[in-house]
Amino acid sequence: MTALRPVVLATGGTGGHVFPAEALASELESRGVPFTLVTDSRGRQWQGALSRRPIHYIHSASPTGSIARRLLALFSLARGLFDAWRALGRISPSAVVGFGGYASVPTMIAARLRRTPAMLHEQNAVLGKANRLVLGGVARVAVSFAHTRHLPDGDNRARLVGNPVREPVRALRGSAYRAPGPERVVDILVFGGSQGAASFSQVIPEAILSLPASLRARVRLVQQCRPEDIERVRKLYAQGRIVADLAPFFADLPQRLASAHLVIGRSGASTVAELAAIGRPSILVPYPHAADDHQTANARAFEAAGACIVIPHADFIPATLAAHLQALFEAPQRLDDMARAAHAAGRPDAAARLADVVTDLISPTFTPSGVAA
Questions:
Q1: What are the binding positions for UDP-N-acetyl-alpha-D-glucosamine in this chain (predicted)?
Q2: What is the SS3 assignment for 247?
Q3: How far apart are CA 341 and CA 293, in angstroms?
Q4: Which CATH number is correct for 7-163+348-362, 3.40.50.2000, 3.30.420.40, 3.30.465.10, 3.40.1260.10?
């Protein structure tokens, strides 16, 4: 087989854009497909397959905020385009794959200017602004949801692949779920990232403390909290004799997810994909300020599959949450049903499907198995 030129992965910013790139990198590596990374300065922290190949850094910024900040961001993006143009000239890639976020925009524009085959991966149920900006220059759009807002129905470039998850999550795909029986402990995992921890630390303790004593005694919590909230939340749970493990960050989050009977969280793309990969029931509270309200779209799609309960942020008050918790504790079969629905919604082969689209883009004669026809 003729030696392949590397595939460029254009990503950066938050984990939601990075995790699928990392999963694709591992899959390409296993197939012997060379790749390299073009990203912004935030990519210096990455581990795994992404860190084992050359990394090219470019300038990047998000054009939001004040007029001055937007002008500075546009200047930074222009510098990033120059950086990306030079990087692609040195790399001479066979294709470029963009994962959304403004960190990918300069590279995707440079790919179009250089007439390099390019494609996008969209993690959310709404095509993001950055991906919409470069949509006209790509040959394929790999999507994670059957219906993706802002992508025209019938667009023949679309390929449904799912949202790849990290290997530690994928390894837990077969973890059995058993709903808690009557009088048994209910393990609840709460995580919301920096965008969720503040309101969760206010509402969730009040909701749990308002449960009937017989139900409250069954609760065992693992909850992500901001450092400044931990002591206050710990005292609240101690008053109700609730066993709670509180921390700003859990390095073993996949294992905690697999051990949970119920998850309370936001509905970012990675959260939904990981819940589906492991198959755990959830109560999702979409972050109301997410771009294009994409978290609500993600949550509603998951809810339509029967996998979760959605509480809009405006309705996320102790009484509402407590009512849902009590109903689930008293009818654990519903937890079982949601767990099965979440598992059925998962796409454990998403990384392989995405890699198939990439290899098809590289060459019509390059088969999905990675062997030339």
A1: 14-16, 124, 166, 194, 295
A2: strand
A3: 24
A4: 3.40.50.2000
Residue ranges for the binding site for UDP-N-acetyl-alpha-D-glucosamine?
A: 14-16, 124, 166, 194, 295
Dig out the tokens for 326 from the structure: 């009590």
Residue spans of the domains in the chain: they are 7-163+348-362, 186-345
Task: Give the type of residue at 165.
Answer: V
- Residues 6 or more apart whose CB falls under 8 angstroms from that of 69 comprise 63
For the chain, the distance separating the N- and C-terminal CA atoms, rounded to the nearest angstrom, is 9
Q: Which two tokens stand for residue 148?
A: 């993706």
Compute the distance between CA of residue 274 and CA of residue 170 in angstroms, rounded to an integer: 8
Distance CA 62, CA 43 (A): 16
Count of C-beta atoms within a 10 Å radius of residue 304: 13
Distance CA 83, CA 143 (A): 28
Among 286, 274, 269, which residue's Cα sits nearest to residue 125? 269
> Helix, strand or coil for residue 305?
coil
Domains 7-163+348-362 and 186-345 share a fold: yes
> Residue ranges for the binding site?
14-16, 124, 166, 194, 295
What is the CATH class of 186-345?
alpha beta
Backbone phi and psi for residue 96, each to the nearest 5 degrees, phi listed first: -125, 130
Task: Give the tokens for residue 60.
Answer: 């990047």
Instruction: Give Dmax over CA atoms of the chain in angstroms.
Output: 69
pLDDT tens-place values along the chain, 373 residues long: 456 899 999 998 777 788 899 999 999 999 999 999 999 876 666 656 566 778 899 987 777 778 887 788 788 888 989 999 999 999 999 999 999 998 999 999 999 999 999 999 999 999 999 999 999 999 999 999 999 999 988 899 999 999 999 889 999 998 999 999 888 999 999 998 655 578 999 999 999 999 999 999 999 999 999 999 999 999 999 999 999 999 998 999 999 999 999 999 999 999 999 999 999 999 999 999 998 999 999 999 999 999 999 999 999 999 999 999 999 999 999 999 999 999 999 999 999 999 999 999 997 644 444 333 2
Q: Is 265 helix (H, G, I), strand (E, B) or coil?
A: strand
